[in-house]
Amino acid sequence: MFYGINILIPGDFLTPLRLMISQAELDALRETLGANDPLYQRYFRWILGVFNGEITTGGFRQRSGKDIMSTVLPTLQILIPSFTLAFYISRIHSIKTPLSKLHKNKFFSDTLATLFISLFPPIVLFLIDEKIENFYTFLSLTFDLEKTPLSALTISENRFDIILLLFLFGTTLFIVKSLDILLSNKTRKSGFGFSIVILFYVLILQNDILISDLILNSKNAFKTIGILSIFFLGEYILLNNVITQNIAREPHILTARALGYSKHKIYNRHILRNSFGPFATRLTLGLPYTIASLVIVESTTGWNGMGSVLYQSIMNQDSNAAMGLFLLLALLTSFLRVIISVVQGTIDPRVRLK
Amino acid sequence: MISYLLKSTYKTYHGKIGYFCLGLLITSSLVHSWLLGNIWPENIYDPIVGFDIEIFPHPTTPSSSHLLGTDPLGRDVLSMLMAGSRPLIQLSVFSFFIGIATSLFFGTTIPFILKRTDKIIKEVSSSLILISPPIILLILGTGDFTDKLSPSLVGVIYGFMSGLGICYLVVRSKVIEISTQEFITASKLLGARSFYIATRHIMPIVVPYSVSYMLASTTYGILAYGFASFYGQVGWTPNWGMMIYDAITYGSYLGGINYWNLLPPTFGFILCASSFYFLSISVKKQFGISI
Fold first, then answer.
1. What pLDDT digit, counting tens, does each position of A3-31 carry?
2. Best label site of A52, A218, B88, B208, fewest CB within 10 Å?
3. How many Å lie between the alpha carbon of B188 and the closest alpha carbon of chain A?
4. For residue B57, is the peptide bond before it cis, meaning its omega torsion is within 30 degrees of 0?
5. In Å, how far is A119's CA from the nearest CA of chain B?
6. Given an 8 Å threshold on Cβ–Cβ distance, is A105 in contact with B133?
7. Which residues of A85-121 are buried (b: 16+ CB within 10 A; e: fewer)?
8. What is the DSSP track for B59-119?
C-alpha cells in the first residue's frame, strides 16, 4: 500500500538531481541504481531494506533513515501537549454547565467549536505569531536568555528532545490545571502536582545553559501547539457536547440526581468515565485526520516534525524519504490505536469483558 | 430517504446555518459567472489576470468600483472571493457524493452478502485509515499532477478514499449490528433476496452515518485543498489560499497587512468548511449518532 502511494509521488529518488547533472547522466545513473527496474524488483529491494532497518533505501538519498527517525520525537513534542491542552479545555464548558441543562443542545459552544475547526492554520499563526514573539523577546531580555549551539551542550540531541518534550508537556499540563483551579472546577488535582514535579525536574535539576536553550527552542513549539490545539479543540468540544448530552439523558444519571449526589461527583464518576468509550472510538477513527492536521500545521510553523518533513519530501520529490515517513506515520497511528484500546479497556470494564 | 434527511437536518439550527452558508457560496459562484459575462469588464475583474489601470498604486482600499478593494497585483478582491468558492464547492460536492456512494454501496452489500470479500475489503479500509486522505490530496497537488487534475477529479479521488476508508468501517459495523436484528431474519424467512434486504432494509438505516462522516471528512478536504492552494500547488485557479498568501506576504513587504485582502478569503474558508461541519453536526444530532 505504501509503495503504491509512493508511485503517486511524481519523480523518483533521483529526480532531485536533475538540476545538477545532465539528462543523459541522470538516465545512466538511473540504470545503474536500478531505478528503471520492474516495479516488483524495486518493491522487493525496499522491503528487504525495511527489514534491515533502513526505511529509505534506494541508492541516492536526500535524507537518511536516521534523519527520518529523528522527526518522531519533535512530532510527539507537539502532539502530546496539544492533545492535553485541547482535551482539558474542551471539558470546561461541560463542567460549568448545570446538570439540569447538560442534556440540552449547546448551540453557542457548537458554533464556536465549528469556527475553530474551520479556521485556516496560516491565519491562526498570523494571529498568534506576533504575541508569542513579543513574549519571548520579553523573556530573553528579562532573563538574559541566549541560544547555545546544540553541539556545545553536554547532552545528546535525543536527551535534549526528551527533556524538551517533558518541558512542553509539563507546561501545558500546568496551564490547564491552573485553569481548572482558577475556574474552581472540582476536578482531580493530582495532575497539578504531576506537572509541578515535571517542571521541577526540568527547570531546577538541569543546568542553566540547558534551561535557556529549552525555553528558546520552545518558542516555535508553542506556536505549533497553539495552532494544533485549536484544530483539536473544535472537534473535542463537539464530541464532548454530543457525548455528555447523550449520557446526561440516561436513567442512571437521573437516578443519581434524584438521590442528591453532588454535581462534580456525578460528572466525574458517571459522565466523564462513561464518555471515554465513545470519545476513544471517535479519536481512533479520526487519527488519519489528526495526522493530516500535523502535516498542515507543522508545515505552517516550520516545526521540524514528521508532518513538515513529509511535506518537504513530497515537494522536493524525495519519494524515498516520503515513503519512510508514511511508514512511520502508519506505525504511529497503529501505536496510538493500541494505546487508546488499552486505556479504554482499563477504564471501561465492559470492553475488557468483550 | 434523501428528502427525509434534508427535512430533518433543516429542522435544527446547525442545519439551517449549514444550508445557508452552502447556499451563499453556491450563489456567489453563480453570480460571479453572470457578473463577469454581463456587467464586469473581464480585463479589470478577472480573478486571475484582471488589472485596473485607472487606479494606482495597488492594493487599494474598498471603493465604489472595487467593493472589497484590490490586491497587490491589482485584481478585484470581491471577484477573487466569489470565484474562489467554485473549486472548493466542486471538490466538496464531488467528494461528498462519491464518498457516500462508495461507502453505502460497498459498506452495505459486501458485509451482508459477500462475507469473505468483506474480510479483504476490511483490511484494505484499515490500511486506508493509516494513509490519511488529505495527505493524498496534497500529493495529488504536486508536480505533474497540478495541471492534469481538476478540483472535481481531486474530489472524486478524495471521496473514494474517504468513502472506502473510515466511512466504510463505520457503515460496516452498523450493518453487522443491524443484520442480526429480528426484522432482517423475518425478511429472510419471507424469501427476500439478500441484495433486496441490503438495499431496502439496511441501507436507509446506515445512510445518516455515512452522510455525517462524509460531511465531516469533506471539511478536512477543504482545509487540505486550501493549504495546497496557500502554497501555490493548485495551478492557475482562483483560490482563497493564494489570496491569504498574497495578503500576508506582499502585505508585509508593503509595510503592513491589508486586512481587506486578508479577511475576505479567511471568511470564505470559515463559511465553506463550517457549512459542511454544521450539516454533519445536524445529522448527528437528529439521528442520535454519538461517535
1. 665 566 555 666 666 666 677 777 777 77
2. A52
3. 29
4. yes
5. 6
6. no
7. bbbbbbbbbbbebebeebbebbeebbbebbebbbbbb
8. S----SSSTT-B-TTS-BHHHHHHHHHHHHHHHHHHHHHHHHHHHHHHHHHHHHH-HHHHH
* Pairwise CA distance, residues A247 & A256, whole Å: 12
Question: At which residue does the C-alpha cell 479520526 appear?
Answer: A286
All residues of chain B having their beta carbon less than 8 Å from the beta carbon of residue A115 are 270, 274
CA angle B269, A84, A348 (to 5 degrees): 110
| Interchain CB distance below 8 Å, B224 and A278 | no
What gap in Å lies between CA B4 and CA B215, rounded to an integer?
17
Q: How far is CA B98 from the centre of its chain?
A: 11
Among chain B residues, CA nearest to A331 = B130
Reduced to 3 states, what is the DSSP secondary structure of residue A252?
A: helix
**What ipTM goes with this model?**
0.81
**Of B131, B216, B224, the residue nearest A334 (C-alpha):** B131
> Rounded to an integer, what distance in angstroms lies between the CA atom of residue A254 and that of residue A261?
10
| Cβ contact A170:A195 at 8 Å | yes
pLDDT tens digits for B158-194? 888 888 888 888 898 888 888 888 999 999 899 889 8
pTM, to two decimals: 0.81
Q: In the 8-state DSSP scheme, what is residue A19?
A: G
Query: Beta strands of chain B (E only): which ranges?
Result: none
Lowest mean pLDDT among A123-137, A206-220, A313-327, B18-32: A313-327
